[in-house]
Specification:
- The protein has helices at residues 2-17, 21-35, 86-102, 128-134, 137-142, 160-170, 174-182, 196-205, 228-234; strands at 45-46, 53-58, 61-66, 72-73, 78-79, 84-85, 108-110, 117-123, 145-151, 213-216, 221-223.
- By secondary structure, it is of the alpha+beta class.
Length: 246
């Protein structure tokens, strides 16, 4: 917390001495092109959160940059009045927007059309914990949770897992096929136009490092296998029963 207070104190000083944002944007962009040559500056804009500073989206990070281009803040920004992590809220919104941009027509969707809540799972068809989570899907569906799969072959785009993922997508019944592969059964290794590479690259962008990785419909991320009773409690759909805790 001391680091946050020091940072906010520096912000107050720099903001008071910084020139008007409209006059300095072009100069700031020119300065940053030299100091951050590998970073796209397309989204550089005045910050609404930190007056006198600028913000720039860089993957899953929101960078805050002083108007003179001398200082860059990399880390979580905390609103001390509300105790809210503003950076975390931004990351959740970013993840939600990027996932929704994929479109359900490019996902494997299991569950009710009028769902109470939705989770999106980056899954690896050869991952045992993904297979374990798949067994929880009927219970999640029964409580009104829609489950959407995005393929994330951890071994990469040249792997056998990638080829299995493509075959699942190209199957006549994708839901049946993904369940079969997760259960260790063979399916026909078809190929067709598919979004698997897009899924994989989005997972990397959202810093998915293992599977399953679950994103709630509010953007929160949970890594690893979580049993259905806990997921339902986290989604405010069912109280967590202590006797079922695992």
């Amino acid at each position: 917390m001391k680091r946050v207070l020091v940072f906010l104190s520096l912000l107050a000083f720099w903001s008071a001495t910084a020139p008007a944002a409209g006059d300095e944007l072009a100069a700031l962009r020119a300065t940053l092109q030299q100091r951050l040559p590998r970073v796209s500056l397309d989204g550089l804009r005045p910050s609404k959160t930190v007056p006198g500073w600028y913000e720039l989206e860089h993957g899953m990070q929101l960078l805050f940059i002083s108007g003179d281009g001398k200082h860059l803040f990399l880390g979580d920004l905390i609103d001390l009045e509300t105790q809210r992590n503003l950076s975390e809220a931004w990351r959740e919104q970013y993840a939600r927007d990027r996932i929704e941009a994929v479109g359900e027509e490019n996902m494997i969707v299991i569950g009710p059309k009028r769902a109470k809540r939705t989770i999106t799972v980056f899954t690896d068809v050869d991952c045992p914990y993904c297979a374990k989570l798949h067994l929880e899907v009927p219970e999640l569906n029964r409580h009104g949770v829609k489950v959407r799969y995005l393929m994330f072959p951890r071994a990469g785009l040249q792997s056998e897992t990638y080829r299995k993922s493509v075959a699942v997508w190209c199957a006549a019944d994708r839901v049946e096929a993904v369940g079969a592969v997760k259960a260790g059964r063979r399916i026909e290794m078809k190929t067709c136009a598919n979004p698997v590479e897009r899924h994989y690259k989005l997972g990397l962008e959202l810093q998915v490092s293992g599977t399953p990785t679950i994103f709630f419909d509010d953007g929160r991320m949970v890594g690893g296998y979580v049993p259905s009773n806990r997921l339902l409690a986290m989604l405010d759909l069912k109280p967590l029963e202590t006797s079922d805790a695992r």
